[in-house]
């Protein structure tokens, strides 16, 4: 990299000092005031103002304005001559043609202007000599590199601290990247102090001082870009373990190596040309000469961008996609170059921002999400709060967009003071668009923070069983309450932010929002009368929520509807039946709600024993089984009061009915009751307690011989029984 910097500096000084062997005689330079007048008339903002004044005068007199007195406007003025159509397209074409003509006319004059540059520089360099100047510049760069090396050696503990930061946690990755950027800043400052500081120790002629300092600053910029790119992308030549995980962007090793190679070179060439263009006007190169030279610089940068695009690493899986992207990027950079040739500088910067601003925003978002991603499972997956990530992401995005808007406004020749003082339609529209953009960014920033906070609550504090002080699983009521209300609050806040942002945007472009608000109120009243059912549902839902009648995850019943609450809207609730169907019930139709998931539930059921059973002994057995189930690890967290017998319910048809009761937390009695039945049957069988079943006894003659001697006649009782049986069979057949 130092070779590249030295080569760029030497080439830049040589370009400034070089002159053709047989330079043409310099053209006659017009007086200074006349030259300033021509430059002022060539200014686009002055042209636009003159055109507007002419159009205004022509509109007031009813006659076309006369051609301007300025030669610069003869071919590029937006006001057409009489009999010609005055359109924006024709005016743009005239400006492009005039710009190209100026470039062609300036080319023969460049050798003479370079001769003047050479004469001025050689006059100040005569005491030192060109070879001595180049040697001193090389020495200054070497001094900067030496101080950088010394800084590298003395900051070894800081490098070890950066290496020791964990890569498996978001905080550790952020510290690694921040430490590398800070360390790069130290090396950049060391190089600047070593090179420019050493130069300042000597007494130089003013012109040589300005030239060398300017190119040294370009070298510092190039060095700084290289250091920051390396700190961000961590190319493979740095020999960093697991470099993919500690980069600031999710890129492969091949992509990191590629862009670490090309980006510093592109910015280095750009910085070299920028330093040259800062110096050349003061050395005698006029504005047209600078325009011609800028085209050569643009062509070199175009070649560098195309080389970087075409040589970037490609994957076989996305080969066709990468080829299409490559051709699109090529066409984009060629269009930028053609806009520079045509002199459409405002359009050039807008086209430049239309691609690089979204690209920067996307890369920033990916970088923030990649660096602050959750940690690995080995360290417990530590995370950064979503609201912090949203603030960083949206904050950077807002800064980038506002900076781009300010830059484009400056390119257009606008500032907020002139836009406030100006009363033209263009200024009014531009001021309104800028205000709209600022309001939209502020609304997006606020909404992103609110959404991140709500999603954090919904994602972390979900309603689930937690273990309390007594190892009892409970459904945290605060969590369930938040999960019930936060989605509704989120929708309400989104609607409020959108309405407020739209009203502020309309007010910023000059629209009176007072009548709109009044009209919206009238329309709202009319809609309220026409949609009374919807209004009833919404108001009923508000009161249900205020009363805390149910929450998400609770099992409720209302009339013929029963199920688990899944979600809410402003006017309805969704219930999931235990068999699967999902009910969507408007709040106005709910009525009385029975909540079966609050605090505790008591389940009562019956057990029938034989009439000869010892009731007191059966009670003790039931109590013992209840205590055993209460200590069972499967059910102990649910039991509030164990299963016990309340007493005799009634004398049934087949036995004595015993009443049994159990109190548990919601959802815990069903499984325990099934296991209680199994255990009860086993214990009663072991203790000889009968669980009676309904039976039918058929009794015949006691003597078998009597059956043979029995009369063959059918008695009336048997006839009635047979008739009754036939009727039952006939009824059963009809039912089937």
From TrEMBL:
Compartments where found: Cell membrane
Keywords (A to Z) from UniProt: Cell membrane, Membrane, Signal, Transmembrane, Transmembrane helix
Membrane topology recorded in Swiss-Prot or TrEMBL: Multi-pass membrane protein
Domain (Mechanosensitive ion channel transmembrane helices 2/3) ranges: 491-532
Biased composition (Polar residues): 73-84
InterPro entries per record: LSM_dom_sf, MS_channel_1st, MS_channel_C, MscS_beta-dom_sf, MscS_channel_2nd, MscS_channel_C_sf, MscS_channel_TM-2, YbiO_bact
Listed transmembrane segments: 131-152, 181-202, 208-229, 266-285, 291-310, 322-338, 344-363, 384-408, 428-450, 488-507, 513-535
Stretch list, region Disordered: 52-84, 696-717
Span of domain Mechanosensitive ion channel MscS: 533-598
tRNA processing found in the keyword field: no
One Pfam family in the UniProt entry: MS_channel_3rd
Keyword Transmembrane helix in annotation: yes
Protein family per UniProt: Belongs to the MscS (TC 1.A.23) family.
PANTHER family associated with the record: MODERATE CONDUCTANCE MECHANOSENSITIVE CHANNEL YBIO
Name the record gives this protein: Mechanosensitive ion channel family protein
Organism: Mesorhizobium australafricanum
């Amino acid at each position: 990299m130092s070779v590249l910097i030295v080569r760029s500096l030497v080439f830049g000084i040589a370009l400034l000092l070089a002159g053709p062997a047989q330079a043409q005689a310099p053209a006659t330079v017009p007086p200074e005031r006349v030259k300033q007048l021509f430059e002022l008339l060539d200014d686009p903002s002055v042209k636009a103002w003159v055109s507007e004044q002419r159009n205004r005068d022509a509109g007031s007199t009813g006659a076309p304005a006369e051609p301007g007195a300025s030669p610069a406007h003869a071919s590029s003025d937006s006001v057409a001559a009489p009999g010609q159509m005055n359109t924006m397209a024709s005016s743009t074409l005239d400006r492009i043609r005039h710009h190209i003509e100026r470039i062609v006319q300036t080319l023969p004059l460049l050798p003479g202007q370079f001769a003047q540059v050479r004469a001025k520089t050689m006059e100040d360099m005569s005491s030192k000599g060109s070879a001595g100047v180049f040697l001193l510049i090389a020495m200054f760069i070497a001094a900067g590199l030496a101080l950088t090396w010394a800084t590298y050696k003395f900051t070894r503990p800081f490098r070890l601290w950066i290496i020791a930061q964990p890569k498996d946690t978001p905080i550790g990755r952020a510290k690694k990247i921040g430490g590398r950027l800070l360390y790069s800043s130290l090396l950049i400052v060391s190089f600047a102090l070593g090179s420019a500081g050493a130069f300042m120790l000597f007494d130089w002629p003013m012109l040589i001082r300005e030239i060398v300092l300017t190119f040294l600053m370009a070298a510092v910029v190039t060095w700084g870009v290289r250091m920051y790119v390396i700190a961000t992308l961590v190319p493979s030549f740095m020999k960093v373990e697991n470099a993919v995980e500690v980069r600031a962007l999710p890129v492969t090793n091949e992509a990191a190596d590629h862009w670490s190679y090309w980006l510093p070179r592109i910015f280095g060439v750009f910085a070299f040309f920028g330093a040259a263009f800062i110096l050349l006007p003061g050395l005698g190169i006029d504005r047209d000469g600078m325009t011609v030279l800028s085209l050569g610089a643009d062509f070199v940068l175009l070649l560098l961008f195309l080389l970087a695009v075409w040589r970037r690493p490609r994957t076989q899986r996305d080969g066709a996609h990468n080829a299409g992207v490559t051709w699109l990027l090529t066409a984009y950079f060629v269009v930028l170059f053609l806009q520079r040739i045509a002199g459409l500088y405002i359009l050039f910067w807008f086209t430049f921002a239309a691609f690089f601003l979204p690209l920067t925003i996307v890369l920033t978002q990916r970088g923030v999400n990649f660096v602050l991603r959750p940690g690995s499972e080995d360290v417990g997956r530590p995370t950064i709060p979503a609201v912090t990530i949203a603030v960083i992401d949206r904050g950077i995005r807002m800064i980038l967009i506002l900076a781009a808007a300010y830059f484009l406004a400056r390119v257009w020749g606008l500032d907020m003071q002139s836009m406030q003082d100006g009363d033209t339609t263009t200024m009014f529209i531009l001021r309104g668009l800028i205000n709209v953009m600022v309001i939209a960014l502020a609304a997006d920033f606020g909404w992103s923070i609110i959404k991140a906070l709500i999603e954090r609550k919904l994602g972390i504090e979900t309603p689930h069983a937690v273990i309390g002080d007594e190892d009892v699983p409970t459904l945290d009521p605060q969590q369930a309450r938040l999960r019930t209300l936060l989605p509704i609050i989120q929708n309400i806040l989104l609607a409020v932010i959108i309405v407020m942002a739209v009203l502020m945007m309309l007010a910023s472009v000059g629209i009176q929002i007072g009548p709109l608000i009044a009209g919206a109120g009238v329309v709202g009243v009319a809609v309220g009368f026409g949609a009374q059912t919807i209004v009833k549902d919404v108001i009923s839902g508000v009161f249900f929520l205020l009363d805390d009648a149910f929450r998400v995850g609770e099992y409720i019943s209302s009339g013929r509807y029963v199920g688990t609450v899944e979600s809410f809207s402003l006017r309805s609730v969704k219930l999931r039946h235990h068999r699967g169907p999902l009910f969507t019930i408007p709040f106005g139709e709910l009525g009385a709600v029975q909540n079966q998931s609050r605090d505790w539930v008591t389940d009562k059921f019956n057990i029938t024993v034989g009439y000869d059973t010892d009731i007191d002994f059966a009670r003790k057995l039931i109590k013992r089984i209840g205590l055993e189930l209460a200590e069972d690890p499967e059910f102990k967290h649910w039991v509030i009061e164990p299963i016990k017998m309340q007493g005799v319910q009634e004398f049934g048809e087949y036995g004595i009915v015993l009443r049994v009761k159990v109190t548990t937390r919601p959802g815990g009695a069903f499984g325990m009751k099934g296991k209680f039945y199994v255990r009860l049957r086993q214990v009663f069988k072991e203790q000889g307690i009968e669980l009676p079943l309904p039976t039918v006894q058929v009794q015949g003659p006691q003597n078998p011989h009597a059956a043979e001697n029995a009369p063959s006649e059918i008695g009336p009782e048997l006839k009635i029984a047979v008739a009754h049986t036939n009727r039952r069979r006939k009824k059963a057949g009809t039912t089937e």
